[in-house]
Amino acid sequence: MEMNADELQQRIKSAIILLADGHSLMIGDLTFGRKNKKHFSVTGWTLKNDLENLTKQSALSELAEIKMLFTKMTISSNELADFLKNRQIEFCLGFDYGMGAIGICKETNGHFTWETDLKN
User: Fold this and answer.
1) How many domains does the structure of the chain reveal?
2) 25 part of a folded domain
3) What is the pLDDT along the chain (120 residues), one digit of tens a residue?
4) What residues contact residue 39 under an 8 Å CB cut-off, 6+ apart?
5) What is the pTM of this model?
6) What is the CATH number of the domain that holds 104?
């Protein structure tokens, strides 16, 4: 889903209001969430149609893309950058299978956790 800069700014402002109330919200290809006042999660979804086609290396590449996209969003939005101050950010890669989602891996403070067993 491609958005122009003004649409992105409006979505981020709406997201901050919803996140402050404990809701999650999708902005573009990322889903933002918050467990508490110190935690913020950024989830992106693998482009693979089948987990069998996903390797650890491709999952790490997709996680890096999620982080890069999120960094671009924080650079373009002072409101988002302010909202994130003093929060621990967790980056997650998930697999959406239509009726739910499976966690693949996540990174918090440079520490990776594998939630799904993938081939090398």
Assistant:
1) 1
2) yes
3) 566 778 878 888 888 888 877 778 888 889 999 878 899 999 999 999 888 889 999 999 999 999 999 999 898 888 888 888 999 999 999 998 888 899 999 999 999 999 998 887
4) 87, 88, 90
5) 0.86
6) 3.30.70
